Amino acid sequence: MRPPGPAAALDALNARHPWSHNDHFHGWILRRLPEHRRRAIDVGCGRGGLLARMAPHFDEVLGTDSDAEMRHRSAERCAGLPNVSVTGSPLSELSPGADLITMVAVLHHLDLADALTRVSDLLDPGGRFLVVGLAPPATLHDQLWNLVSAVTNPVIGLVKHPRPDRSGRQPPGFPVADPTVPFDEVRAHAESLLPGATLTRRLAFRYTLEWTKPQRRHRTT
Length: 221
Hints:
7 strands, methyltransferase
């Protein structure tokens, strides 16, 4: 019997030492919170993990998700947090006045230009927009980053989950959609609509986007 190839061996190792690629970036977000922390919005809040971690830092935390099962799980997880609420309202229906807007593996589900424009409208001056995103590999640079992610993925799994998981149990999956906008195109849109935004390729097949809305300039007479 022929031994499994490298790809199959990596898949098997990943399955024995699973870890959440999205939750991995919660710390990145928490280290970049804005100075003013009245209201935070997590768009596509999923099972509510990030909502719970942001709750101690803000007066109000709002999670939005279009999927009813995800909203239910978020509400359950945050039931003991009185400053957290969950809604199914889309980005276009949210009220302005946010100090932080986060999107973790969500931006590729939305119309890119519309979402970036709406975020700019919703944020107060000095507010921050933090994204953990996915993009399809379109260039050699993209493909090399994906290769590095594939190789380091099991190493990170061993560190985060050193004991092999033999249960085979997995939590209900998130609604998924394949990303269609390449990294360079996301960056071009962000630089146009959110001047000063910083995009960085990351391991775990992700990129990050970071933007702070400029403060209003005072008129001089």
